[in-house]
Amino acid sequence: MNLLTLQNVQNFDAYVFSKQPDYHEPTVRQEFAKAVPLRTVVVYCYDPRAVGVPAAVAREFDEVYPGEILTDEQGNKIASTTTLFEVIVAGGRAIDALRSITVAQHLFGIKNIVIVHHTHCGATSFTADGIVNAFQKEQGNDISTLYEQDSICISDFVTSLQHDTRLVRASKGTPHNVDIYGYVYNIDTDELSLVTQDKGAPVQIGA
Ligand SMILES: [Zn+2]
Predict the structure, then answer these.
(1) Neighbouring C-beta atoms of residue 178, cutoff 10 Å
(2) I need a labelling partner for 109 at 20 to 30 A (CA). Which of 75, 84, 174, 202 fits?
(3) 48 CA distance to ligand 1 middle (Å)
(4) Distance from the CA of 137 to the center of ligand 1, in angstroms?
(5) Is the residue at 130 inside a domain?
């Protein structure tokens, strides 16, 4: 691994939108909204066996995934045709996806948030007390108040999906109009089962 010199680090400014001389935030935001026709954010587990989740959700919601990267005349990658973004986190627990949902709404706009928990997930193999105790013993760190207890592991899928649907809905960073869904994904059959859904409120102009 090469260490970067200070000069090289400064040159990265050329790749930062907000560092451009003619930067105008509202204009840049409009350009981003046009670059990707995003509709759906899917939150799922980083377990390699869950890799089929986004394609299964794309089939269920008729989304374009993975779509195509679009380039300009110089070959620069400037846009995508996908309508589905992935947020990949341990257990697919929504607590780790809240900021990504807010940013996705701000830059592209979203209609659906799909939370997917999967069969035989590692997050069902331990308890909140178990991981807290192990961390205390192995790392000497008390993580008992670091994360919301109900978001640490999965004790049963109905509880975890209902909890995560409520958590996303309650977040101030979630747009009011989005529909939120909770599914179980069977890693062996590639099937999705709807467990819970929460339809969004109509958009109120100026509200
Ligand atoms: Zn998992």
Answers:
(1) 23
(2) 75
(3) 8
(4) 24
(5) yes
163 a known binding residue?
no
Burial letters 43-62, b for 16+ CB under 10 A, else e:
bbbebeebeebbebbbebbe
Q: Is 1 inside a domain boundary?
A: no
**Residue 190, domain extent:** 22-198
Q: How far, in Å, is the centroid of ligand 1 from the Cα of 91?
A: 4
Distance from the alpha carbon of residue 176 to the mean position of ligand 1, in angstroms = 28
Ion ligand 1, residue ranges at CB < 5 A: 45, 47, 121
List the pLDDT tens digit at each of the 207 positions of the chain: 566 556 555 688 889 999 999 999 999 999 999 999 999 999 999 999 999 999 999 999 999 999 999 999 999 999 999 999 999 999 999 999 999 999 999 999 999 999 999 999 999 999 999 999 999 999 999 999 999 999 999 999 999 999 999 999 999 999 999 999 999 999 999 999 999 999 998 877 665
Going by C-beta distance under 8 Å and a sequence separation of 6 or more, which residues neighbour residue 67?
Answer: 80, 81, 82, 83, 84
Q: 24: annotated binding-site residue?
A: no
